[in-house]
Amino acid sequence: MKMIRLFVLLAMVFSVGQTVAQSTVTTAPMRFNIVKEAVLPMLEIVPGSVTFVDSNHNGVIDANEVCYLRFLVKNSGKGNGEGCRTIVEATGTTDGIVIKEAFLPTISKGQEIEVRVPIEANGQTKTGEIALKIKVRDPNGFETKDVQYRIGTRK
After folding, report:
1. CB atoms within 10 A of CB 148
2. Rounded Cα–Cα distance for residues 73 and 80 (Å)
């Protein structure tokens, strides 16, 4: 019995100034609906802006010539156009013609930029004409409307 009293007394001495309390709070379950609005660019090749620039200014792609297409791309959307690139498909007399891909800088909303697409012709180039289908594609697969353009080629 003395032992129990001593134990209770020691327990009281060591617990002086300490309050031991425990409470439990229960809240109603909550639901969250987080909606993230997609802010997308709206890109277009400015109508009438496509031009062909060649080194000797004769308006055709000559064998062993380096030249380029130049056009404007406008962003009329609410978001920035990032990671975009050009897609140019050529048909016709395409022997010896290499059309490079151009990677565009970020096009801010409301901004218009100039794009240059390099074209190289080697010694295999033949006299004729190529028909080009030009567009710009973003990383999500969205594309501008196709723009058609024709250029003569010469051996």
Report:
1. 9
2. 13
41 within 8 A of 80, measured Cβ to Cβ: yes
Per-residue pLDDT of 70-85, as tens digits, reads 999 999 999 999 999 9
The length of the chain is: 155
CA distance 61 to 100: 14
Cα distance between residue 149 and residue 119, in whole Å: 14
Q: What are phi and psi of 15, to 5 degrees?
A: -100, 5
Q: Which helix (H) or strand (E) holds 152?
A: strand 147-154
C-alpha 98/C-alpha 66 separation (Å) is 10
* 0.70 surpassed by pTM: yes
